[in-house]
Amino acid sequence: MTNHLIIGMSKEQIPTPALVLDIDIFEANLSRMADFFTGPVKLRPHIKTHKCPMIAHLQMRAGAIGITCAKLSEAEVMAEQGIVDILIANQVAGYGKPERLAALACRADVKVAVDNQNNIDDLDRAACAYGSRIGVVIEVNVGNDRCGTRSMEQTLDLAKYIVAKKGLIFKGLMGYEGHCVFTAVRGERKAECLSANKILVDTAQMLRDNGLIVEIVSAGGTGTFDMSGIYSGITEIEAGSYIFMDACYSGVMGNEVFRPALWVLSTVISKPAPGLALIDAGMKSLTHEFGLPKPLLSGAELKGLSEEHGRLELLPEADHLKVGDLVAIWPSHGCTTVNLHDRYCVVKDNRLVAVWEIACRGKSQ
Amino acid sequence: MTNHLIIGMSKEQIPTPALVLDIDIFEANLSRMADFFTGPVKLRPHIKTHKCPMIAHLQMRAGAIGITCAKLSEAEVMAEQGIVDILIANQVAGYGKPERLAALACRADVKVAVDNQNNIDDLDRAACAYGSRIGVVIEVNVGNDRCGTRSMEQTLDLAKYIVAKKGLIFKGLMGYEGHCVFTAVRGERKAECLSANKILVDTAQMLRDNGLIVEIVSAGGTGTFDMSGIYSGITEIEAGSYIFMDACYSGVMGNEVFRPALWVLSTVISKPAPGLALIDAGMKSLTHEFGLPKPLLSGAELKGLSEEHGRLELLPEADHLKVGDLVAIWPSHGCTTVNLHDRYCVVKDNRLVAVWEIACRGKSQ
Question: What is the ipTM of this complex?
């Protein structure tokens, strides 16, 4: 089916709801993050945010050392598109998955997070069967209390266990400080982040003291990139959201460094009463786990989402809205919003200049 | 890319997270609803729930008179797949949309909801340009307070306005009682529903008293199918969720009539501490606007979702879970969960018996 998009069309002609990327702001965000990572710590951006090979290639061109993925199926897509230095920052487990990972490792420099001995056995067995070697990093719980080892002893035991496996290469550690990336007060965020960084770096040192080689010490999100990114002993940062700056991250960090580049363009489909307009973007185009998204229109507030409707309540200054009018909506959570769309409508000076496929959309397997 | 699915494989071999449809329960739900609609009121199921041409065809075979869609792009996909009697139960507005609808009306019997005079002008202009006639129903606000006319006078004015348009065919009314489909106490739900039905049917009668022909009077959701579905003057029902029965609707209606047929199969990827397991299904595979989904495992509760993780807290009876184990998750809201997936893994007796593409996934334009 056609997507009704033609390069050169005006923004007003793009069928809505549409995921619109402002290329100038996006490129500025890309450059600003690249400029930060000129020291010993490197950037390995998380592609879960954009799920788009074109954007991954632009990040690599801007100096990224590779990419971070959440899932095996994302890594498979990215490898097929020519991105071959990949950290899968989650555990890969389940029927057939170690085999797929081992097969991918024949063609890409792929590293995966582990925190479990049986999982390590499965990965090793698959790699030996496929004649590849899978890089592994141990996920360390640094306070996020999700996956990851719970003690230095456990980490050391797992590291020794990995080193003895012929199909695996022990690469180091990762620990995501997800519990503090959204802490609103910068001083508090920094204190929490440094505690998390310390756990990770101290663990790496302990492993080295035990004779292990620790090449990768991976941490960091967009909310902590300039904290973890200068912490001695951290080697690479997994930030992803910086390229788009959703409303949630902007609420935490402000818009001085990175600016909002991603919008969902919507159309008013009903103006049934004073002070009320309904737009054609609902929960199937916008997510709201980090609060309701924000319309880019003074005097308008998004007060609710149903599946295919957004409910805009309007002060008198915005009550001029009429059926057919466009309203740009600022996503509150870019990563999950992107996963609802098939492509970016890339816009410059109000013109469609490119269409980038979100090839990893739905790639959660 | 391959989807790693082979007909005949066991459920345990399906890559997770996977949207799994139990075909026996699904077919029982299909039959039960069809059995209800043997009287004067007909079923026009809403395909926003499943977004799948194969399921739409099965609903037609079971006696549905056509389908209801939320969006033009869903209708385009369904028409291309041979489903040609379509009600788009929302307003279609915005650049290029009336023209697409008019073009579709050349090949399909398409009806669309309206509540605005300028929108009616746009649809008429497009239909005249394309040499087609678009069926229109006026959306009446029956208490949902979303789109729709706010008074009988407004409805009458719009109906007369439509009748005078050469490119349009006035078909009747629709009014969705979305404000009460989830009312937990059946008696209260029924009272609210009958009030909504009365507004709609009284409005239809008023139009007839004014000499207008009202063929369609469309209402009803899964929570009210057996209330609106026997209300004299209602002609068709738009229920959709009955085929899957998500946890939200089951909480309202019980599981006596329709039973849960839809699951997200997940795998445990980490078991980092007693009482805690992480599964590979998060917000990119499951939605939670109607509450967190429920694991099909006694003693396990889903306590949180991040993008690609689900956090299962386990009582001692469920603490046997280990990395690699499968856990089926019952969606709380089927319609939005389906929109995150590309296909149904259709299962019978624990075997994959079919793979049905969700061709309308992401079709919100």
Answer: 0.97
